């Protein structure tokens, strides 16, 4: 170890918990944004929070960049390694430390898988609300770093709305705690600031999550439409009715084709778009609201309406929806997932323009989106083996993001900026805002060693602008295979 | 009385921040202790008005000095609301004050508080720059969440000039039940059960002076009667007539239950801390309103409790339990109890307010 990493850093973990051979490092070269790959110097596999703290302190001392990583499901390249730094993988910090059913909270380590929180809470009639599509593998640490969303944000919000307390090691090696077991707090909202920091402030070690009571009744209905526009009109009608559905999702024809191929999802014949609406609450409430929803859908131009009759059918509806991203892999060797947001009422216009831009570029685009939030997920299909195909796909992705901004929306609803959209940060925020965000980042991480190269454009990290041997290599402190 | 400047435009606001060395942003002054410093008062009530409100988007944008009352009325007209029961609406609290104080009312139990509904801000930092953070759409993960950070920031980190909030459709109807609870611990047990029950209550609040446990249900009228009946079968109590119910909620969210001359404090708490805190507070003669399912105590603190060593003693107990109090009105320290001094707080303050134009959290 000592010949690859500074002695102090290497000594934090026993040699068997450092991965340094190329074959071991290969798995960590990228996350779910596979278009970007970087090989780190080494991967550290800590098992305790004390080890994480010691790693961060040693990195700070030696000015070595680090990238914290959970399951590597980021769609924005949020855990892309840096070539002159280490990856700290947190999967072994996967203990649920405490569940307090009376206070309705769970205190967890960062490597706990999202769904495991709900599994552990189920015995108390509670669950953890944020449900990203990758929830069966993604970790709470990653959810906190990127303020992950999911299909049910319309009613229950994003990760930030569920983080009550944090114990964090800042990039400086300081350990701080914010918030706690209470749903209320006084003073500035540090947990709110930390959630969604994209790993630029430090690493969350313990996270206190609020749990919600499981709804007594859930009603899920799937409606097929001949056009995206017709499905969009149905969304507007539901919103206008005063209902507050837990989720409203739309899939377009290409996404339906993919879901049919991948998980044998069954959709009404002849439909070009599918709308999923979910209501939840006490059974009496859901009964009344369901009648209202039935009426709205019946007077929409649906070609088929399929209410889930039981939990099995409900799960089947969601399986088709949540598998859509990976299912698209069957239609195309490569794809980029976009995450822009537009004002909800301009969804129809946005989709028409995406369709037009896709046709102009000769690129197929599948659409799966959180219609209730105006959060689009265009999947831009390309074949990476064809020269220039990735670049053309990225040009189209850029045009879509600019359209979202032009409409008064956002470049990311829930995936974060990461490396993928850092070039677009200056299109959403002005020079002054970015300067202030850099100052805030510097307050937490003056050396810019924590997850460098994410969020800010042009590589705020010296490492990314750097070419040739790392200063530590030149000093003989670091070498590579 | 300190000097006052009252900008009438965003340009005048940035100009004021650039030209006055020590400033403290204020709204309607409904929480006087938050602004009891000797800095020049930057009165934001001249920057008032709803700038955008589109019911179909579930969002509105308003200038910081806009009375919350105006917003609540505009939303009600379209069948929408801010679900966290904004406080001191009647006495004129402003949107900026709502954010800076970070105080939410009883309804925060179900869908969250101020922090959970704020989407974006325009703010002026200590260098007098007008900055925009967050967004205007209901979902956004771009950049650091400065809007959330400003919730509870007490005007110490920058001036909120304008804000965008998410709103929800207002439930068709409400029912308030008053449950008979013989003791605090009995009330806690009922709250525990209800918190994990099928009823999905909007609010669970314990009235001051042993006035009973209020539980508020919301939803379609056709469902509420059955829900209320079922709840009352399990927990003895009564349905309150609408006028009486709204009277209670009004008294709580306007803080009119507070004794004249008492200080008013907010103390966030958790299940395990409720009994000891309640006892410690009552020993000083304080009156307590437990709100949001026992997640927060609003405390009417009489002057003997603040005299001599009494407050110091109470503050020591809070520190021991890891609890922090915020004084909204009356003579007591701004923040007391557990109050770890941190480098990071100063560093972030310096990032937003490098010249210390705004007061710090210790004044």
Strand content of chain A: 15-25%
Amino-to-carboxy terminus distance of chain A: 12 Å
Give unreliable regions of chain A as ranges. Answer: 460-481
| Portion of residues within helices of chain B | 25-40%
**How many strands, which pairing sense, and closed or not: the largest β-sheet of chain B?**
5 strands, antiparallel
Describe the structure in brief.
With 481 residues, chain A is an alpha+beta fold. In chain A, 33% of the residues lie in helices and 19% in strands. Chain A has 18 helices and 18 strands.
Task: Give the arrangement of secondary structure elements.
The complex is a heterodimer of chains A (481) and B (363).
Chain A: H1 7-10, E1 18-19, H2 22-25, E2 42-44, H3 49-62, E3 66-69, E4 86-89, E5 96-100, E6 105-108, H4 114-121, E7 126-127, H5 140-146, H6 153-156, E8 163-170, E9 175-179, H7 190-194, E10 202-210, E11 212-213, E12 217-225, H8 228-240, E13 247-252, H9 253-263, E14 273-281, H10 283-298, E15 304-307, H11 311-322, H12 324-327, E16 334-337, H13 347-361, E17 365-370, E18 378-382, H14 389-406, H15 425-428, H16 431-444, H17 462-465, H18 471-474
Chain B: E1 4-5, H1 10-19, E2 23-26, E3 40-43, E4 50-54, E5 59-63, H2 68-77, E6 80-81, H3 95-101, H4 108-111, H5 114-117, E7 118-124, E8 130-134, H6 146-150, E9 159-166, E10 168-169, E11 173-179, H7 184-195, E12 203-206, E13 213-219, H8 221-234, E14 237-239, H9 242-253, E15 263-268, H10 274-283, E16 287-291, E17 296-301, H11 303-306, H12 310-321, E18 324-329, E19 335-337, H13 343-352
């Amino acid at each position: 170890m000592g010949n690859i990493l500074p002695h102090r850093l290497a000594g934090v973990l026993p040699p068997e918990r450092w991965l340094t051979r190329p074959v071991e490092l290969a798995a960590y070269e990228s996350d779910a944004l596979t278009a970007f790959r970087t090989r780190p110097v080494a991967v550290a596999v800590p098992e305790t929070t004390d080890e994480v703290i010691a790693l961060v302190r040693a990195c700070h001392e030696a000015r070595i960049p680090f990238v914290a990583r959970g399951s590597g499901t980021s769609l924005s390249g949020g855990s892309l390694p840096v070539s002159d730094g280490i990856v700290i993988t947190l999967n072994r910090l996967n203990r649920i430390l405490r569940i307090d059913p009376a206070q309705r909270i769970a205190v967890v380590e960062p490597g706990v898988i999202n769904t495991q929180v709900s599994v552990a809470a189920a015995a108390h009639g509670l669950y953890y609300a944020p449900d990203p599509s990758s929830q069966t593998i993604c970790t709470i640490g990653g959810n906190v770093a990127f303020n992950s969303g999911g299909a049910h944000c319309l009613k229950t919000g994003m990760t930030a709305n569920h983080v009550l307390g944090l114990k964090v090691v800042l990039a400086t090696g300081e350990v701080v705690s914010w918030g706690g077991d209470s749903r209320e707090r006084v003073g500035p909202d540090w947990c709110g600031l930390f959630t969604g920091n994209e790993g630029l402030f430090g690493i969350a070690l313990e996270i206190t999550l609020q749990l919600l009571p499981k709804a007594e009744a859930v009603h899920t209905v799937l409606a097929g439409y001949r056009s995206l526009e017709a499905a969009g009109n149905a969304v507007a009608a539901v919103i206008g009715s005063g209902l507050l559905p837990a989720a409203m999702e739309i899939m377009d024809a290409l996404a339906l084709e993919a879901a049919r191929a991948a998980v044998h999802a069954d959709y009404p014949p002849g439909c070009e778009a599918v709308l999923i609406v979910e209501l939840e609450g006490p059974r009496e409430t859901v009964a009344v609201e369901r009648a209202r929803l039935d009426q709205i859908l019946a007077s929409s131009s649906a070609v088929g309406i399929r209410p889930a009759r039981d939990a099995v059918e409900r799960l089947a509806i969601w399986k088709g929806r949540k598998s859509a991203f990976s299912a698209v892999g069957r239609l195309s060797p490569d794809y980029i997932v976009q995450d822009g947001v537009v004002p909800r009422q301009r969804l129809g216009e946005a989709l028409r323009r995406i369709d037009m831009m896709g046709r102009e570029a000769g690129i197929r685009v599948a659409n799966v989106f959180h219609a209730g939030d105006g959060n689009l997920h265009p999947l831009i299909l390309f074949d990476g083996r064809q020269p220039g195909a990735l670049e053309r796909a990225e040009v189209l992705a850029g045009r879509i993001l600019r359209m979202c901004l032009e409409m008064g929306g956002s470049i990311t609803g829930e995936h974060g900026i990461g490396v993928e959209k850092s070039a677009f940060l200056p299109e959403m925020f002005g020079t002054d805002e970015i300067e202030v965000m850099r100052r805030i980042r510097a307050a937490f991480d003056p050396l810019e060693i924590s997850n460098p190269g994410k969020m800010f454009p042009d590589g705020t990290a010296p490492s990314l602008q750097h070419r040739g041997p790392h200063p530590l290599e030149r000093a003989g402190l670091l070498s590579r295979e | 009385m300190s000097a006052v400047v009252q900008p009438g435009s965003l340009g005048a606001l940035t100009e004021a921040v650039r030209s006055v060395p020590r400033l403290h942003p204020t709204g309607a002054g409904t929480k006087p202790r938050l602004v009891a410093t000797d800095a020049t008062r930057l009165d934001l009530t001249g920057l008032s008005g709803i700038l955008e409100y589109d019911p179909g988007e579930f969002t509105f944008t308003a200038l910081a000095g806009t009375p919350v009352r105006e917003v609540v009325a505009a939303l009600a007209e379209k069948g929408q609301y801010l679900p966290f029961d904004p406080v001191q609406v009647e006495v004129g609290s402003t949107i900026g004050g709502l954010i800076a104080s970070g105080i939410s009312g009883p309804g925060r139990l179900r869908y969250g508080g101020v922090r959970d509904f704020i989407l974006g801000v325009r703010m002026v930092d200590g260098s007098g720059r007008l900055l925009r953070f967050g967004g205007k759409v209901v979902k956004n993960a771009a950049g650091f969440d400065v809007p959330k950070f400003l919730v509870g920031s007490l005007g110490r980190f920058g001036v909120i000039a304008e804000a965008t909030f998410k709103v929800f459709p207002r439930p068709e109807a409400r029912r308030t039940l008053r449950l008979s609870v013989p003791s605090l611990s009995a009330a806690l047990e009922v709250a525990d059960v209800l918190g994990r029950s099928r009823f999905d209550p909007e609010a669970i609040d314990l009235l001051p002076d042993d006035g009973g446990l209020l539980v508020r249900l919301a939803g379609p009228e056709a469902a509420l009667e059955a829900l209320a009946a079922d709840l009352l079968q399990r927990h003895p109590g009564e349905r309150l007539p609408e006028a009486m119910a709204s009277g209670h909620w009004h008294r709580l969210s306007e803080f009119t239950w507070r004794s004249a001359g008492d200080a008013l404090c907010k103390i966030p708490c958790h299940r395990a801390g409720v009994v000891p805190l309640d006892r410690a507070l009552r020993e000083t003669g304080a009156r307590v309103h437990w709100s949001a399912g026992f997640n927060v105590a609003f405390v009417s603190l009489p002057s003997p409790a603040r005299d001599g060593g009494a407050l110091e003693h109470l503050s020591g107990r809070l520190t021991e339990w890891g609890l922090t109090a915020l004084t909204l009105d009356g003579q007591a320290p701004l923040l007391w109890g557990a109050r770890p001094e941190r480098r990071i707080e100063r560093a972030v303050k310096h990032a937003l307010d490098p010249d210390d134009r705004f007061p710090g959290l210790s004044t």
